[in-house]
# Entry
Amino acid sequence: MRRKYYLNKKHLPTIPVPHDFIIKKIEADQEFLSFYFEDDITWHSSAEILFPGAKSLIMRFHLTDPDFDTYKWKVSKTKGKGYFPYEFHNLKMPLKRNLEYLGHNIGYQSVIIKLFRMDFIMIDVEADYVVVETIE
# Structure
């Protein structure tokens, strides 16, 4: 089942958050930023409420600007602590730790996506709609 949530209307939608779901693949092209989640989301307690009957999930953010910013939380001796620019392609590289989806903040044609893999990661995108597809 697919649901489309528009971010360019008078009232912003409430988009379900796959909190702590493991991301197995990320893709970005000129049109979409896509997150493909683990093959079995049923072990998450929130999955039955947010995505009843779903085995997996895909979230696609339709980009109005294909250039988006990615940041990683760091503690630096010279620059202090905070979010610093991070290369998006590093998220695609498999590491020993899983990449988790923590949440997102929705604004008018804007989404801030929060991820976690050993450190906090933030992706700031301009999007006009989000497609959430459940795989049963």
Summary: The chain has two helices and ten strands. The chain has a mean pLDDT of 93. Residues 2-135 form one domain.
